[in-house]
Amino acid sequence: MAAGIKAVVFDFGNVIINIDLERTFRAFADLTFKSPDRVKNLFAEAGIFQKYETGFYSDDEFRDVVRQTLSYPLNDQEIDEAWNALLLDVPAERLTYLENLRFTYPIYLLSNTNAIHIEKCQQYFRARHNVQDFRKLFNQVFLSYEMGLWKPDYKIYRKVLDETGFKPAEVLFLDDNPDNIDAARDLGINCIKIDPPESFTDILGKIL
Q1: pTM of the model
Q2: What are the residue ranges of helices labelled H in 2-153?
Q3: Is the dihedral of CA 13, 15, 20, 21 positive or negative?
């Protein structure tokens, strides 16, 4: 695989930063006296993740939708803290690997995400790793809420290919979501599915 690879594209959640989505559902459940499963189902029915993460809602609109969806008068801070509860940690060795890999390959980030999560991640990288802007770890960053596109839509992958100038066969894409992997493979992109808690540092070290 390595012979034809000219660029590496990383997902963010569970590839760069460890996440646990269930923590967010539990956090909202604790605040609203609903079960985590009920919160998860309400969020799914309202399409909250996809709508917010494609820029359909502003941050304030998102918070209002959460209040309406959960039928509970949460304040902004409660919403942000529960929403960010899924964000865990970034092992230092991953950052070291990225810094070294960039000497050999251009590296990119492609993530379904949102402004509240990105701001929290910026705060984390500054406090924990003394990285003032984690975006600068990559040659270019592609974030769904800024693009108005969402994995696994083919359009988001084509946009990345168009902007970076690489052919699908020249790109290696790492993601933890099987639907995202399948869509990228359909377009001819080389893919590796990350299965947490395994780390890309171990996998890439054997093939690049």
Answers
A1: 0.96
A2: 21-32, 36-46, 48-53, 59-70, 76-83, 92-101, 115-129, 144-147
A3: positive
In 3D space, the residue among 50, 59, 51, 62 whose CA is nearest the CA of residue 115 turns out to be 59
Q: Which residues of the chain, if any, have pLDDT below 50?
A: none
Residues of the chain with pLDDT > 70, as a percent, come to 100
* Strand pairing report for 171-175 and 190-193: parallel
Range of the domain at 26: 21-86
Choose among 169, 163, 135, 170: nearest CA to 149: 163
* Together in a domain, 10 and 79: no
| SS3 category, 133 | coil
Residue 115: which residues within 8 A CB-CB, separation 6 or more? 59, 145
Q: Do 74 and 97 share a domain, yes or no?
A: no
- 108-130 per-position pLDDT tens digit: 999 999 999 999 999 999 999 99
Tokens standing for residue 150: 């969402």
Q: How many domains does the structure of the chain reveal? A: 2
Q: In angstroms, rounded to a whole number, what is the distance separating the alpha carbons of residues 86 and 100?
A: 28
The last residue of one of the domains, among 86, 108, 140, is: 86
Regarding whether 51 and 26 lie in a shared domain, the answer is yes
> Residue 149: how many CB atoms within 10 A of its CB?
22
Q: What is the pLDDT of residue 205?
A: 85
Bridge partners (DSSP) of residue 13 are 17
